[in-house]
Structure prediction request, 74 residues.
Amino acid sequence: MRPGLSLLIGLAVSSPAMAFAEGAGGSYRGIATMYYTLMWGILCYGLYDTFGKTALYVGAPLLAIGTYFMLPPG
Prediction:
């Protein structure tokens, strides 16, 4: 439970840009950012739970880069 809580706190602190709403006629990048961040957190917890801390340290940045490139153009 403690790694999950730490991950949620880290996500809340590290991504303040999710709080900014886009104006009328904006793209889906804001909601996609929140969706992919949640998906990244779940996948990172799965890495930690299945393979341990070392796999998390290696896999989390790779997952973050992958989810960033999956975002729609803004």
Q: What stands out?
A: The longest helix spans residues 29-51. The chain has three helices and no strands. The CA atoms of residues 43 and 63 lie 8 Å apart.
